[in-house]
């Protein structure tokens, strides 16, 4: 991944991990050890789903830039759907506290989206290739048709 992509990934993953850590502490106090495990699992799921999504979106932007916006909308819809499926599959689990898992999953997803939005707004990404200063400049007498 280019350094700009890694920077955006880190700027989204770190706040999400912080939200997950706070959720794990709160869940441990409220629901015990299973609550903390549920919060930690939810945090890992959010970081993996959203991180893979960001990677796929950046690859699409480089290889198929004309599909970037549509791919972004489809990707977010697919991620939300997959998170809903994950919630549905694990709603009756005894491995961890399902409510702590669900609340952390929602909080982590919102934290990721907010942090990624902020990272994109703050990054200075060129969307127009600057002209090369070493290349040949067209003569003024040439026609541009």
Automatic annotation (TrEMBL):
Keyword Transmembrane helix assigned to the entry: answer is yes
Q: Which UniProt keywords apply?
A: Membrane, Transmembrane, Transmembrane helix
Q: Where are the transmembrane segments?
A: 12-31, 37-57, 69-90, 96-115
Name assigned to this protein: ATP synthase protein I
Q: Name the species this protein comes from.
A: Streptomyces griseoloalbus
